[in-house]
Design brief:
By secondary structure, the chain is an alpha+beta fold. It has 2 domains: 88 residues, Thrombin, subunit H (Beta Barrel); 88 residues, Orthogonal Bundle (Cytochrome Bc1 Complex, Chain D, domain 2), CATH 1.10.760. 27% of the residues lie in helices and 20% in strands. Strands 1-2-3-4 form a 4-stranded antiparallel beta sheet, with no helix packed on it. Strand 1 and strand 2 form a beta hairpin.
Length: 209
């Protein structure tokens, strides 16, 4: 999987987080995997080490973000954990554990697909121009940003206010009313509805095993 930054120590250790949500310690000379910790979220940042009163600590900012997590979309759907931002600090002899991770299921329940194929195709082009950089390839979220295939009925009702008017600006979703019109926003919504139905059809397809 994609890996984060590396820390090497004078004691022949190399530490690195990865997209699976692990912090791993390797032997620096042989690359042998010596220890790992389940951080319950992908790790992008490198570890750091420091000493307080003669005791050594290792700290890492855990959280799944950055360009790969945002844009990766369907390419990352094979097991990336949700974003759980936290600072993890380790020392020898500690036996503290993280609380169990609770995953909220992704509920995809779109309205009926009524838009034309042309509308969906226009929406796809607009999505690739304006939305893919945060909401992911194929409208599949990498974790940090809401998955637009799982929009609720309320979100569908508010779609124009969100996309054009900036209803959720305080959450980082600015409005695009100066660049897009109502027809554009409806084409975008048509594409997202199509993506939701496509995902449901994939889930319901019979296994080839």
């Amino acid at each position: 999987p994609w890996n984060g930054g590396i820390l090497s120590t004078a004691g022949n250790l190399m530490l690195q987080g990865n997209a699976r949500g692990e912090l791993v310690i390797y032997s620096a000379d042989e690359g042998e995997r010596l220890w790992s910790f389940d951080a319950q979220t992908g790790i992008v940042a490198p570890p750091v080490t420091y000493r307080i009163n003669g005791e050594q600590y290792i700290a890492i900012v855990a959280g799944w973000g950055g360009s790969l997590a945002l844009v990766g979309g369907e390419a990352l759907k094979g097991g990336i954990s949700p974003n759980r931002s936290r600072l993890l600090v380790f020392k020898l002899g500690s036996d503290v554990a993280l609380p169990p991770a609770v995953d909220e299921p992704l509920v995809i329940d779109p309205p009926p697909m009524t838009a034309s194929a042309d509308s969906v195709e226009r929406g796809k082009a607009l999505y690739l121009g304006y939305c893919v950089f945060c909401h992911g390839d194929g409208a599949v979220s990498g974790g940090p940003i809401p998955d637009l295939r799982a929009m609720t009925a309320e979100t569908h009702e508010q779609f124009l206010a969100i996309v054009l008017g900036g209803l959720h600006w305080d959450k980082g979703m600015v409005g695009f009313g100066n660049q897009l019109g109502t027809d554009d926003a409806e084409d975008l919504r048509a594409f997202l509805i199509e993506r939701a139905h496509h995902s449901l059809s994939q889930e319901q397809a019979p296994s080839e095993d």
